[in-house]
Amino acid sequence: MQLAFLGGGNMARALIGGLLRRGTRPEQISVGESVEAARTALARDLGITATADNVAAVENAEFVVLAVKPQDAAAVLASLQPSLARKKPVVLSVAAGIRASALERSCGSGIPVVRAMPNRPAFVGAGVTGLYAPEHVGASHRAAAEQVMQAVGEVVWVPSEEAIDVVTALSGSGPAYFFLLAELMAQAATDLGLEPQAARRLAVATLHGAGLLAHSSDGDLARLRAEVTSKGGTTEAAVRTMEAADLRGIISRALEAATRRSRELAEQFGA
To answer: Which range is least confidently modeled, 60-64, 126-130, 198-202, 263-267?
Structure first.
């Protein structure tokens, strides 16, 4: 499959690197990127073709990844309509907030569109991506999108476009929540007398190890938590304090706020 990327930023680099590690050849990938320094770095570091000409980038592409800023997406796609009409590639958008209907209008008639919401751990091949496609997008096109995004981690299909906003709040923004918790844990331990560097290392290793443990299990998070929480022990004392402070409500309100903001951005960029 010949692939083209529109935009050569961090997520595009992560995807290209993942695809190359999984056996895609450099000559199968082209990138349209307006910044000269970024084009030079892409060609040097990844061995792929990078050009300032988006038309040239998508000329032979069977699959196009839209990885530009949301405010630039409509103009970039509209300028490529004649090229897209000739080959009719799958267009997969990792541009946050732009609805599939808006993408389809920008691409022109008959172009299959898939939306993706990856997250930052994709940079180290440990991401998870929510995928959505309108009903008229066929199975082969969905499979191609899944194959591309699996290059940087797991994929989860969602049945409605509204669910992508929840994915954005949960896994798209989610790494920041865990980083914040680890940061606060390290600071609290430092305030209690632990040396700051040791506190940070312990917090980071705990974050990493807990994630690995959860990922290798059956996914029952409540059971995993219960297994660490001995009755009358230190963990129970800490968890009770968090529950008394309404941690559950805080998390619920935080995800509601992120979901709401995702929908506001969709209205802004997807009109």
So the answer is: 263-267
The letter for the amino acid at 255 is L
pLDDT of residue 270: 61
3.90.1150.10, 3.40.50.300, 3.30.1490.20, 3.40.50.720: which CATH number matches 3-159?
3.40.50.720
Q: Where are the domains of the chain?
A: 3-159, 174-265
Closest CA to 33 of 54, 58, 10: 54
User: Given strand 153-157, what is the order of strands in its sheet?
Assistant: 49-51, 29-32, 3-6, 63-66, 90-93, 113-117, 127-132, 153-157
Is there a contact between 129 and 155 (Cβ–Cβ < 8 Å)?
A: yes
- Please answer whether residues 50 and 75 qualify as being in contact, where contact means their C-beta atoms are separated by less than 8 angstroms: no
Q: How many C-beta atoms surround the C-beta of residue 185 within 10 A? A: 18
pLDDT in tens, 181-210: 999 999 999 999 999 999 999 999 999 999
C-beta atoms surrounding 222 within 10 Å: 7
Fold annotation for 174-265? ProC C-terminal domain-like fold (1.10.3730)
